From TrEMBL, chain A:
This is AP-3 complex subunit beta. InterPro entries: AP3_beta, AP3B_C, AP_beta, ARM-like, ARM-type_fold, Clathrin/coatomer_adapt-like_N, Clathrin_app_Ig-like_sf. It holds the Pfam family Adaptin_N. The keyword Glycoprotein does not apply. Its main location: membrane. The gene is AP3B2. Residues 704-715, 756-774 have a biased composition (Low complexity). The keyword DNA damage does not apply. It comes from Pongo abelii. Belongs to the adaptor complexes large subunit family. Residues 801-947 form the AP-3 complex subunit beta C-terminal domain. It is found in: Endomembrane system.
UniProtKB/TrEMBL annotation, chain B:
It holds the Pfam family Adap_comp_sub. It is found in: Golgi apparatus; Cytoplasmic vesicle membrane. One of its GO terms (molecular function) is small GTPase binding. This is AP-3 complex subunit mu-1. One of its GO terms (cellular component) is Golgi apparatus. The gene is AP3M1. Residues 192-433 form the MHD domain. Part of the AP-3 complex, an adaptor-related complex which is not clathrin-associated. The complex is associated with the Golgi region as well as more peripheral structures. It facilitates the budding of vesicles from the Golgi membrane and may be directly involved in trafficking to lysosomes. In concert with the BLOC-1 complex, AP-3 is required to target cargos into vesicles assembled at cell bodies for delivery into neurites and nerve terminals. It is a peripheral membrane protein. Belongs to the adaptor complexes medium subunit family.
Length: 992, 434
């Protein structure tokens, strides 16, 4: 079996229509069998000069990869062809390279120079594809090259290349997470990009690399909202879910003041600017004074988000619709959530997988907001052809939606379902009936009668399920139902399902006074078959025996003793335990009379009826639409949806400002540009992109014509001009309109004079109004306040350290010197209060309130004001997960300046850390005026040890060595679990 | 403390989005795998097979499966499982939607989405998957763009390719991704310019035993086939747009225009695509075009039963109802059926217990019926439930909701296109309970 015949045959075979899979040929199969010559023919083909042969070889290789066969030994032969002129060969080589480069790193390096050359190509598509492949080769040694390439591509002329750069960011990050800081810079730059092409990809990168840096979003928030409708579908999903999180940290809960909202909603977004402007300045004090009284006014930005996402409910993509639905569910005022129901119901006509996911979410929503889906009740009716898992979910929704008025129809439906051939579904229906009966008192008897009829069903599973449900229902009003209990007692002869038997026995025991005649007889029968029963039944037999002994000892004394003796020697220790325990309780003995006197009270105490609840009840603490919600368990990488802040963070951070100095020099220019800027956001082709292709340039001219109303520079078909206008405007006009709103707002705002906003004339008016307009070159300067969202804006009070009970133990490392004059002590008390206030503010913005609230109790001193030359630093463990990295403990650092000069440039200096410990620094605090205090959050990964984290705290002039040593208790991560889950866990631990 | 330790130990970089894709056929062979990041072993699919076994029925395999290190999200399409491997939190619908988009693309390229088609075109499949997803995040999913990047196979092309040595990868680079009309390719040229629209309405209904309607609703779609040169800008208006209660749009449609004027205005993609899908408000009474008389009974303690159904027209707006098919899932105890149709032909599959009656057209003079005996397994108890009847039918040239296209205008190009609208009404999920 030499290679030659196979080779020629392959050539012949290539004439066949689309037959790349030669692996199946008998000839090539033979080649595989001869180990040494394996793939020799392929190598030969790859070494020829003929493109067609190379292509053929590559096709076969790719077919091998597709089937999961190992083709790594061909690496040297393949990699040579990376510079091949033939574009298809090249593509397939790329496929190969990306697959195997990780395994053959040294050889892969040979290809790098080709890509580097590609990065400089004049054609944007070649640049993009070179970057794509380069960043997909997972070879750590080229990290610097990748970094460089990404940085360069991020400022490429072509939005397509910039998009590719955004895609490359997570790839590099997963290869080497040390590059995070540099990557964040790139992300920041790309976030400022105003083309729709880039937006989705960069937000994806943001979510993967630095989801905790919400501050990067502020300036881009409005732009993202406005671009959203034109972003491609996948990007929309990512952006919407990111904005959901953002909104939860930045805006107030719209539900907190429902009634006031109704009147204010409209005003809120046209006329409330005065409030806004005032609010920015006086909010702090006002809110502190009467936090609850302040009427809720929706932040215009919050409104913008809701308004701009709403049209996406009509997207063809189920993922987008779901994303918007969850956004509305989590962010919209109650009155507005209803709009999502229609769209979600529409998705029920889609593929069954989509139905499955949507129904899970609907089930959760329908518990909280039943009214929303009530009009669509019939859409959840079940067809016999639905898959069982869909049927059961629909049933869940129907049950949740059942109420006094629609219960007759629902029950009639259920009646049809009970006769279904699908027994799992029938069982679920019976449970559903039970739930309806408990929730709606009016129909309880009807349901009970229906269920009793089912007891004569032929299918044992149906009977068993009915028994279990009947038991639960009977507990609610046992007195009237002696007959049913008798009926059930008769069933013990026939029914074999353990759960059902156990339920019957329990019922008889519990209500033995209603069936005094039958009960002892049942016990007799059960005693006979005791050894053959399942454990769960045995326990109930003991239970029944005990209860009968207490009520009717004359008849049952011997029986009980017999049962207890049997149980004493049972294999299962639970049963032995129970027997021993019961005997001690009920049989009077010499010493332990005290307990047995109360035995009756113990056993026959009235028991509360069980509550039948939906299994979806607690699910809404997971973000809807998420994987975690679907699994009802925290998935890896799930980010908790933050709780609403109690006080809104400063809304002005989203205003887009232009630094003073650029404004002066550029004013003239900008005025000219102003209009194109607006149309840019619609037409999305920025002025920086030279016309790369026809449609683009055309569209650009279109958008100009739309904004400059008949500048006449565009198309010759003048009669069509209006239409052209619409072409661009149509889809974009959504955003345009909102922009106009913004414009109007800021126009009003200007005379008001808005707090710290430095702008004062129309030039800035336009720039601050539309966030997208001026995000070009000044992005660096604009980020003056990198992390102000988590840093509390300093309260008005002066400051001083709170001298604390903690000793200077923590300051051991600290070497330095001189003592500053101590500031007046009178200030202390106020500042502490202010600090605490600030503390709660920050906390609530960050994390769910259900976690233990932070108080000042755990506050410890990091740097004494004397040692710190007037800078006092305290820290507390906030006992909340650090938003950036789940393994970090979040530590709140409180700075107060008690000196009389401002302290500048507070930041963490080069930490010297023990192995494993890492620090997420807090953002630099530029300046801390005398008497002021500030709070910052940093994350420390203590690596689960109690080693101290030592680091430097630097100001512009000084460095202080400080260390934080965690108490053991602070290393634990809080876990949210519902009551049920907790009970379950408890049960597990209590076990054996 | 313990928990925290464990969490730290477990920690290593997890990547978001779609990690790998496996295609599995009905007999459980993994016949294609594609990894967008580092390679995940095939053995991860064992969890899937386990779930599949537990589910018994292919339709009941849960779409999301959690395994110790990964999450598997799968769809079932055309007898194939598309199983994707995920490592971290990601909206499940995002992945499901994407997988369906992949299947749609295969369908579009190869005419069918089957194991044979995929195996025959494995290189194209691989190239497509490569373009559709970059590092697990969707890149190019629009069919217009993909077709520019990778030409679909045709017999003619593969013959030409094999002679000239050229390939089916486009050598001109795609322009659609670069423009702000990402769904349309540039430089489209046709000698005959045509634009056709199919208004397809489906009636979803549940009819109860007595013949009264429990639930009925009209779901419609407008599918377009547009072959127009250049960059045409179309606007389509309806006589009665208020009928449409809930609409979902192709991304090309300008939402604002619809909101304000109820006109569909768009620059279409080239070729076939779904323009909108809509639901007609459930407040309107839905005309049910057929009725079924049925009498199905199983006798107690006897091994046979009787089966008798008749179909008749009702509210059909004077149009012929055609393409009628009745499908019935009979109970498990049914062994065989001996029936006589007055029209059409029937089959009964004793393994799956599915009865299919292909009726054809209804002629009101003589209503089609199917009568006969049902053989039951002897000794087994009689089935409690009568099976429900699933009915398919088709009515040409009728949109049952009454929706009418008013006019189609084209702007932006000079030529005169051929225009056409076709209406058809079909049964959707149309079920009669007996």
């Amino acid at each position: 079996m030499s290679a030659a015949p196979a080779y020629s045959e392959d050539k012949g075979g290539s004439a066949g229509p689309g037959e790349p899979e030669y692996g199946h040929d008998p000839a090539s199969g033979g080649i595989f069998s001869s180990d040494y010559k394996r793939h020799d023919d392929l190598k030969e083909m790859l070494d020829t000069n003929k493109d067609s042969l190379k292509l053929e070889a590559m096709k076969r290789i790719v077919a091998m990869i597709a089937r999961g066969k190992n083709a790594s030994d061909l690496f040297p032969a393949v990699v040579k062809n990376v510079a091949c002129k033939n574009i298809e060969v090249k593509k397939l080589v790329y496929v190969y390279l990306v697959r195997y480069a990780e395994e053959q790193q040294d050889l892969a390096l040979l290809s790098i120079s080709t890509f580097q050359r590609g990065l400089k190509d004049p054609n944007q598509l070649i640049r993009a594809s070179a970057l794509r492949v380069l960043s997909s080769i997972r070879v750590p040694i080229i990290v610097p090259i990748m970094m460089l390439a990404i940085k360069e591509a991020a400022s490429d002329m072509s939005p397509y290349v910039r998009k590719t750069a955004a895609h490359a960011i997570p790839k590099l990050y997963s290869l080497d997470s040390d590059q995070k800081d540099q990557l964040i810079e790139v992300i920041e730059k790309l976030l400022a990009d105003k083309t729709t092409l880039v937006a989705g990809s960069v937000v994806m990168a943001f979510e993967e690399v630095c989801p905790e840096r919400i501050d990067l979003i502020h300036k881009n928030y409005r732009k993202l909202c406005n671009l959203l409708i034109d972003v491609e579908e996948w990007g929309q999903v990512v952006i919407i879910s990111m904005l959901t999180r953002y909104a939860r940290t930045q805006f107030l809960s719209p539900t907190q003041n429902e009634s006031l909202l109704e009147e204010n909603a409209e005003k809120a977004f046209y006329g409330s600017e005065e409030d806004e402007a005032k609010g920015a300045g006086s909010e702090e004090t006002a809110a502190a004074a009467l936090p609850a009284r302040k009427p809720y006014v929706m932040d215009p930005d919050h409104r913008l988000l809701l308004r701009n996402t709403k049209p996406l409910l009509q997207s063809r993509s189920a993922a987008v619709v779901m994303a918007v639905a969850q956004l509305y569910f989590h962010l919209a005022p109650k009155a507005e959530v209803g709009v999502i129901a229609k769209a979600l119901v529409r998705l029920l006509r889609s593929h069954s997988e989509v139905q499955y996911v949507v129904l899970q979410n609907v089930a959760t929503m329908s518990i909280k907001r039943r009214g929303m889906f009530e009009p669509y009740l019939k859409s959840f009716y079940i067809r016999s052809t639905d898959p069982t898992q869909i049927k059961i979910l629909k049933l869940e929704v129907l049950t949740n939606l059942a109420n006094e008025t629609n219960i007759p129809t629902v029950l009639r439906e259920f009646q049809t379902y009970i006769r279904s051939m699908d027994k799992d579904f029938v069982a679920a229906t019976i449970q559903a009936i039970g739930r309806c009966a408990t929730n709606i008192g009016r129909v309880r008897d009807t349901c009970l009668n229906g269920l009793v009829q089912l007891l004569s069903n032929r299918d044992e599973l149906v009977v068993a399920e009915s028994v279990v449900v009947i038991k639960k229902l009977l507990q609610m009003q046992p007195a009237q139902h002696g007959e049913i209990i008798k009926h059930l007692a008769k069933l013990t002869d026939n029914i074999q399902v353990p759960m059902a038997r156990a339920s019957i026995l329990w019922l008889i025991g519990e209500y033995c006074e209603h069936v005094p005649r039958i009960a002892p007889d049942v016990l007799r029968k059960m005693a006979k078959s005791f050894t053959a029963e399942e454990d769960i039944v045995k326990l109930q037999v003991i239970n029944l025996a005990a209860k009968l002994y207490l009520t009717n000892s004359k008849q049952t004394k011997l029986l009980t003793q017999y049962v207890l003796s049997l149980a004493k020697y049972d294999q299962n220790y639970d049963i032995r335990d129970r027997a021993r325990f019961t005997r001690q309780l009920i049989v009077p003995s010499e010493q332990g009379g005290a307990l047995s006197r109360h035995a009756k009270k113990l056993f026959l105490a009235p028991k509360p009826a069980p509550v039948l609840e939906s299994s979806f009840k607690d699910r809404d603490h997971f973000q809807l639409g998420s994987l975690s919600h679907l699994l009802n368990a925290k998935a890896t990488g799930y980010q908790e949806l933050p709780d609403w802040p109690e006080e809104a963070p400063d809304p002005s951070v989203r205003n887009v400002e232009v630094p003073e100095w650029t404004k002066c020099s550029n004013r003239e220019k900008r005025k000219e540009k102003e209009k194109p800027f607006y149309s840019d956001s619609e037409g999305e082709s920025g002025p920086t992109e030279s016309a790369d292709s026809d449609p683009e340039s055309e569209s650009e001219s279109d958008s100009k014509s739309s904004s400059e109303s008949g500048s006449g520079e565009s198309s010759s078909e003048s009669d069509n001009e209006d239409q052209d206008e619409d072409e661009e405007k149509g889809r974009g006009s959504e955003s345009e309109q909102s922009e106009e709103d913004d414009k109007r707002k800021t126009k009003k705002k200007v005379p008001e004079g808005k707090g710290e906003a430095s702008s004062s004339d129309e030039g800035s008016d336009s720039s601050s109004s539309s966030s997208e307009s001026e995000m070009t070159s000044e992005s660096e300067e604009e980020q003056l306040e990198p992390a102000s969202w988590r840093r509390k804006t300093p309260p008005s009070s002066k400051s001083a350290p709170a001298t604390k009970e903690i000793s200077l133990l923590d300051l051991e490392d600290f070497t330095p010197p001189s003592v500053q004059p101590v500031s007046p002590p009178a200030i202390v008390s106020t500042s502490l209060a202010a600090d605490l206030e600030g503390l709660t503010l920050t906390d609530s913005t960050l994390v769910p309130s259900l976690l233990s609230p932070v108080s000042g109790i755990g506050r410890q001193e990091l740097l004494h004001r004397v040692a710190g030359e007037g800078l006092a630093v305290d820290y507390t463990f906030s006992r909340q997960p650090f938003s950036g990295d789940p393994h970090m403990v979040s530590v709140h650092i409180h700075f107060s300046n008690s000196s009389d000069t401002p302290i500048k440039g507070l930041h963490v200096g080069t930490p010297k850390l023990p192995a494993g410990i890492s620090i997420q620094e807090f953002p630099e605090i530029e300046s801390l005026a005398p008497g002021e205090s500030a709070t910052a959050v940093m994350g420390i990964n203590f690596c689960d040890s109690t080693q101290a984290a030592n680091f430097q705290l630097c100001t512009q002039t000084r460095q202080f060595y400080v260390s934080i040593q965690p108490p053991v208790g602070e290393l634990m991560a809080p876990v949210f679990m519902s009551e049920n889950e907790f009970k379950k866990e408890q049960g597990l631990q209590g076990g054996h | 403390m313990r928990n925290a330790v464990r969490r730290v130990l477990q920690f290593f970089r997890r990547e978001k989005m779609i990690h790998s894709l496996f295609l599995i056929n009905c007999s459980g062979d993994i016949f294609l795998e594609k990894h967008w990041k580092s390679v995940v072993s095939q053995s991860v699919c064992d969890y899937f097979f386990e779930a599949q076994e537990k589910a018994a029925d292919v339709e009941n395999v849960p779409p999301v499966i959690s395994t110790p290190h990964h999450y598997l999200i799968s769809i079932y399409r055309d007898k194939l499982f598309f199983v994707s491997v995920i490592q971290t939190e990601v909206p499940p619908l995002f992945v499901i939607e994407f997988l369906h988009r992949v299947a749609d693309t295969f369908q579009d390229y190869f005419g069918e989405c089957s194991e044979a088609a995929i195996k025959d075109n494995v290189v194209i499949v691989y190239e497509l998957l490569e373009e559709m997803l970059d590092n697990g995040f969707p890149l190019a999913t629009e069919s217009n763009i993909l077709k520019e990047l990778i030409k679909p196979p045709t017999i003619l092309r593969s013959v030409v390719n094999s002679i000239t040595g050229s390939s089916n990868v486009g050598d001109t680079l795609p322009t659609g991704q670069l423009s702000n009309i990402p769904w349309r390719r540039a430089g489209v040229k046709y000698t005959n310019n045509e634009a056709y629209f199919d208004v397809v309405e489906e009636i979803d209904a549940i009819i109860d035993k007595s013949g009264s309607t429990v639930f009925a609703e009209i779901q419609g779609v407008i599918d377009a086939c547009i072959k127009l040169s250049g960059m045409p800008d179309l606007s389509l208006s309806f006589m009665n747009p208020r009928l449409l209660d809930d609409v979902s749009f192709h991304p090309c449609i300008r939402f604002k225009r619809w909101e304000s004027e109820r006109v569909l205005s768009f620059i279409p993609p080239d070729g076939n695509f779904r323009l909108i899908s809509y639901r007609v408000s459930s407040q309107n009474l839905v005309a049910i075009p057929v009725y079924v008389k049925h009498s199905i009974s199983f006798k107690e303690n006897s091994s046979c039963g009787r089966f008798d159904i008749t179909i008749g027209p009702k509210q059909n707006m004077g149009k012929t109802i055609e393409g009628i098919t009745v499908t019935v899932h009979m109970p498990k105890v049914v062994l065989n059926m001996n029936l006589t149709p007055t029209q059409g032909s029937y089959t009964f599959d004793p393994v799956t217990k599915v009865l299919t009656w292909d009726v054809g057209k209804i002629t009101p003079q003589k209503l089609p019926s199917l009568k006969g005996l049902v053989n039951l397994q002897s000794g087994a108890p009689k089935p409690e439930e009568n099976p429900s009847l699933n009915i398919q039918f088709k009515i040409q040239q009728l949109a049952i909701s009454g929706l009418k296209v008013n006019r189609l205008d084209m702007y932006g190009e000079k030529y005169k296109p051929f225009k056409g609208v076709k209406y058809v009404t079909k049964a959707g999920k149309f079920q009669v309970r007996t």
